């Protein structure tokens, strides 16, 4: 459902040129969680922005649900939910108004929207605050609203950019359980994080990205065996120490 082939991205301005992605290739299928792991500035967000059609690659090709992200951005957007740790929400709307607004933008019918709202509010334990202004909510509550509005159309592909950033362990667990539940339902999930233990627990396969290059990818246990390391963190340091 997600195919990334030789994707590079160069940001250019008058002062400098930054190669944020350097010929990155990977894939992720339905019912799978693929983790993109790397330190600050590795290129994770750039890669996810390309998949969500916000940025165009400088070279290479990316497809979501068989649609090329450059040629068919509208079809891609219909099929994805892009969830980031710092997506803004309108302070003067309530969570319910926010979710309804985005549901209408996706062209959902009234009956589907009502059913979907009930399902989402129960899943994220939101019922107590769906009529409180967003501006008065805590960070964790806002993150729930942010997720709710991006999954209201029940997309088959979910793209999570550091979904648990700034959340306490209770809300983070709620979000992580939601991700696992999505896998159960056959969604194709790509997740970026720099929390290696989180990735190891959640992901079926993962890739380590550093300075725009995807250094390795595979199942955690296979990578651990290949690099003779106990966990992903050790593999990461072993790669860095060997000069990547
Ligand atoms: N719009 C932009 N213009 C210029 N450079 C950019 C832009 N966006 C990202 N970059 C640069 O591209 C590189 C990769 O950034 P990116 O945000 O993809 O990293 P990241 O792995 O998501 O990092 P973090 O974990 O800190 O969010 C960095 O050097 C960053 O400064």
From TrEMBL:
One Pfam match: ABC_tran
Keywords: ATP-binding, Nodulation, Nucleotide-binding, Transport
Record carries keyword Transport: yes
Single annotated GO MF: ATP hydrolysis activity
Species assigned in the record: Uabimicrobium amorphum
ATP-binding among keywords: yes
InterPro entries to which the protein is assigned, alphabetical: AAA+_ATPase, ABC_transporter-like_ATP-bd, ABC_transporter_ATP-binding, P-loop_NTPase
Domain ABC transporter residues, every copy: 2-236
The organism's place on the tree of life at top rank: Bacteria
Family note: Belongs to the ABC transporter superfamily.
Protein name: Sodium ABC transporter ATP-binding protein
